[in-house]
């Protein structure tokens, strides 16, 4: 009799658990259906409650994007995508070639470039790219401003890549002889011997690229330059991605700037653009070398900018790429418009 009673209790408990799990599943399903229905209703009303000025198409045709690409951050791969898309999407891609690869323009050329870029309507819409520091168009008297985008890379990775690039070149132009060709010294050996080519001060490049054309930007270890770089990254760049997440960077741009980057994600995935330019014969630094480099103030500042950019990019893409559980595409609309 006791066993029968236990069996009855166990059966009852299983039934209760099954019912609870069923209702939990139904509640979750109904909540999901409600969210989807709410989103569809909002979408159906969006067009009638948003304002689309007639100039929108013209504004798209006036679009100017400047990619002031930092060397050895994967910029060739990204630009390769733009060159492949420009004919299909009907925009121009122009390389900014500055004498002797200077990263800072003279004041007169800053002014001329700003006026030229904003007024050269025959090539609009356009993507300009080149190894140059951020240029503040507000101080140059232009009536319109271009959109800035960029990529940033872990500072030591970028330095090591550049070190071996100068010695072995890359697979993009394998027959071009670089200025350190024939030098067999490894990066570890260079650091051990305190040679100038691996001086941590050589990492001072991403901070000044985002900081701009001020003299203080180019002083290694300047705290002012770092703060200015952060300010510009947040306030004067539309999107700053990281080399390690190139695909996400391209996907975000496709969502935000479809006039230029429509189809960019699919093209990047289906082509060889993700490995367009790789440094040949690169040797990863030892742990000892990493520890030495990371003691430098310049590395700490450059890494602070990188971590700042990475966190900001994650924040941006979270709202666009919708990879969070139960996330839905964001819409906006106007309501309670008075008087009727």
Summarize this structure as a short list of keywords or feature phrases:
13 helices, 5-stranded parallel β-sheet, 340 residues, Rossmann fold, extended, alpha/beta, single chain
Task: Kindly describe this structure.
A five-stranded parallel β-sheet has the order 2-3-1-4-5. It is extended, with a radius of gyration of 27 Å. The protein has a domain at 59-152 and 214-280 and 304-321: P-loop containing nucleotide triphosphate hydrolases (Rossmann fold). It has 340 residues and is of the alpha/beta class. It has helices spanning 2-49, 56-61, 75-89, 107-119, 155-168, 187-192, 206-211, 223-235, 246-256, 258-261, 264-270, 287-293, 297-321, and strands spanning 64-67, 92-95, 126-129, 147-152, 237-242. It contains 13 helices and five strands. The model has no long low-confidence stretch (mean pLDDT 86).
